[in-house]
User: What shape does this take?
Amino acid sequence: MERNKWTTVSALVGAAAVGAGSVYYWLLQRPLPQTDGILRVPGVSEQVAIYRDPWGVPHIYAQTMPDLLFAQGFVHAQDRLWQMEFWRRLVAGRLSEVVGERTVPVDRWVRTLGMRQVAEQEAAQADGALREQLEAYVAGINAAIAQGKLPVEFSLLRYDPEPWQLADLFAWGKMMAWHLSVNWQTEIIRAQLIDLLGPELAAELEVAYDGPLVVPPGVDYAGIGATALSKAADAAEWVGPPPEAGLGSNNWVVGGRRTTTGAPLLASDMHLSMSMPCIWYENHLVCQPEGFNVMGVSFAGIPYVMVGHNNHIAWAFTNGFPDVQDLYIERLRHEEGRVLYEYQGEWLPAEVRREVIEVKGAEPVIEEVIVTHHGPIINSLVSYPAGEPLGEAPLALRWTAHETDEQFRAVYLMNRARNCREFHEATRDWSVPVQNMVSADRAGNIAYSFPGRLPIRAKGDGRVPVPGWTGEYEWTGYVPFAEVPHYVNPSQGYIVTANNRVVDDAYPYPLGYDFSVKDRAERIHEMIRARERVDVAAMQEMQYDVLSLTARALRPFWAELTTDDAELTQVIGLMRGWDGRLKADSAAAAVYQVFMRRLLRLVLAERLGELMAYYAGQGPTPLLAETNQFGARSWEWLLRILHQPDSHWFAPEQGRARDDLMRQALRQAVDFLTKELGADKSEWAWGRLHQLTFPHPLGNVRPLDKLFNRGPFPIGGDSTTVCATGAHFYDLATASLIGPPYRMIADLSDWRNCVSMLAPGQSGQPGSKHYDDQVEAFFNRGYHPMLFYRQEVEEQAQTVLWLQP
Assistant: This one.
């Protein structure tokens, strides 16, 4: 009997194993694309070769540009089809069709913004050779879909993707521009601070620039923007945090007189949402008859190469953070079935766009969007009695991306540029998002450009919502291309950008007020100046640097702080001996991070009340605080007033002197760390609190998180370090969603010395070995060579796929 029982159990286990193996194959292995052999596909005119190297990077060789773009679309869809589909549905406001009611807030919010409408206009305007190439890219995507190897996500959600259209490419670019534009949120928070404190005190909380906050006449900021922030918060789970809000990217280029080779070196270190798969896709595009040979990263769903190098130049981006969004307070009324808005004494008809949102398993949802000539009303639900004004001030969003542009033409010409001058000229058609672009060419030149649409305002500075009915605050145009910030070969011999302000007060046009803090840029300057010459290894070391200038600036205060508390005296001793490096295994870094948050609360919470979290960076997104650009600057403000012990922000007469608050904050930090990490201070570590997860859009549903997500992993740094990672500036989040998913270092002396890293991996398919094969490299400085010459590509190729007509 006992033997029979175990025989039965063994049989069941065996059957389960076979079943599990079948499921594993069907869901994860069967969808993997063909990457070897010959594949006949309609859409190519001549044979195309696609070599894949040890890191899964495709190197595409074609005889015509349409064939090259077809193959790029094909490999993007082979490796990233679900990611492309998710973004496509997100920007169109169509997630609920396949997900259900859970994503209705996302679709309502995105439909309000109206990005898809602009994308369709741009697609209709595309013409000539550019249109032929874009259509070839779309045809490549659809050819990959036609192979029938759909990723596991489609099986889980039980639907097949629709064929791609040209407008889908343009819409993706609009969504990225939205993620990198956060002025509207900052305006709302600033207006709420003015309503609470008055313009004078609210201005004291600004650290970027001195000067008064001017409130336009006739404007009341009471309760302003509450619905808009609420709608954005509802959408945040799926839309995610703005990738660079409060954080950002680094790039720098060093001229030949400061390098060991005598040729420029360029570093790209872009910080965006860490995700499964990576937001970037590395690829190499070659069309020898056209003289086109470009290596670097693209967005899957967007053709060409966004950042990388060709035979002649290398280039890189960081987000510019200029003010390209304004909020206009509108006066609306409902009259005879129409919505009217006041403008210069007249009541004009507003456009009312009726959006029908299909919902899986439920009735459709109707969203009516009011649009004035300024833009869509972002807080309107159109639920007010006929003839009555809205109870909350309606806010219309004017945004540069609501206008059509020639963005793809700019990217194509940038890919073809042969020197820094041609590269800058190619950016003439670049519109959104405005970027800090650095470039270097083989002739030894280095250059900086700040291209894009930069609004010129008739009145006001863009920092606060303004009356829309007067006509006084209109945009009168954009900064002429000839006058956008641009320079070549600066005397210092290098260029650094890190989302910081890039012009001084002499520049004739206001660019904005919401740039990132200067710590990262200053630290990069410091490291370059500390070396007589730099090489590729030095650039790698710089990209992993976790020394925080903000943390280092606290050292004089630790030196002076005393206490009768023996435990705190021990911790103060720890802080006095700390160099300010936010290493994952650092106990002092953990103390510093908690201390700063508690001290900021102690100084401001009583005065700011519910706005405390907003000032510390909490925007509409619950996933990460740094969404309104006040976050990192709140710490810069705190450092500034620590140098002013007599400041009215302290209150010595109430037992709130500066050093009293520092001791209270330190005690709270020690108590928090003891509770979370234990009483043994040798076990305290920043990486135990601050951990990086690579999340997948479906990974927030258990047990799918085990299939799709990777992490959490302990990680050092914060948003003030060159190796920038996302640390919540208000409440200490345990998961960092921001980091450098792609790093590149280009050596202009020899393209064979160029290196890169793309985390977590090239593929978006969990069954692929390239799904997460660069995670370990990410944490261990494991750069890989960017294979550029065909001989080395063929020598290291793991597979080769031939596309034939």
About this structure: The two ends are 65 Å apart (CA to CA). Confidence is low (pLDDT under 50) at residues 1-20, 241-246, 381-390, 620-626. Residues 501 and 515 are 6 Å apart (CA to CA). DSSP finds 26 helices and 30 strands in the chain.
